[in-house]
């Protein structure tokens, strides 16, 4: 976040980094959690296509240091092909003949037309060229035992009591929405977004609650083990 922000005197963190690096910087630029720059070219979803300041700052840093060695690190590099705009140094697009696509737009169009198969080819070629690697931890030699916790009668009673309470809330949720004006007297909604948000909050709260409850009930067996 500091990369895109400016100080009280108007000097940005990006300009400070570039001044420190110098004009002929040839070192490594390592972008950890690089997916934070994934909206560098804007999004075609929502209300507009305005790019993120984070993504733009990352692109400016790369463009200002053309001789730097750029290193992208991410567990989720991109959720869609559009979000690869920040990865200009992968050599996927450019004006020179050695680039496979003349522009980012051309790359995106080709990938969208080719689907998953096209992206698999890109990943294969990048890996062959030494531009992409994906590491995974091996479970070789790992041993484990299954520990089963038998619920006591008291725990079952507690669980049933909480389940009954959430059932009561569930059965009266529509009435609560009507009382707060989200639904009208006939049960039709006056605000679909508010209704969906209320139900989503209820379900997510219920899920988290029972997850914590069950983890707490299993704790005695884990401690004894």
TrEMBL record:
GO term, biological process aspect, one: regulation of DNA-templated transcription
Strawberry notch AAA domain boundaries: 2-161
PANTHER family: PROTEIN STRAWBERRY NOTCH-RELATED (PTHR12706:SF30), STRAWBERRY NOTCH-RELATED (PTHR12706)
Superkingdom, natural source: Bacteria
Pfam families recorded: AAA_34
Record-annotated membrane-spanning stretches: none
Stored InterPro entries: SNO, SNO_AAA
Protein name in the entry: Strawberry notch AAA domain-containing protein
